[in-house]
Amino acid sequence: MTEHSPADVDGLEWAATRGMGALAEKMGLRFTEFTVERCVATMPVEGNTQPVGLLHGGAYVVLGESLGSMAANLHAGPDRLAVGVDINATHTRSATSGVVTGVCTPVHLGRSITVHEIVVTDDQGRRCSTIRITNHITAARA
From the candidates 13, 37, 46, 65, which is the catalytic residue? Predict the structure, then answer.
């Protein structure tokens, strides 16, 4: 249960104020939608590839973890912190150009555990990766 109503929080403003972290910024992530029920971000393929020109599998995971962890923290509310405890990814297609889009939706929103699924698609809307992240919610340290 959140300590604030999602209607009281502008998710994009909250995310911009909080920041997404140096790695996500370096990889070019951009949030385009941000609520407790649905978070969306894009990431360029260029600059995030493996040597053969495919989007690196770890890049998909960075996108997924950034979305899932941020969504869990928005749900957690003030004075609480969500930290990742498990993540897995299944890559089913390779992106080689353009941008990929991650759409994060909750599977479970509890008081101490959240589970989110992130579906990453290419410019043509084809699923490239499916990521699931579990976050543990705890009191934030002072």
Answer: 65
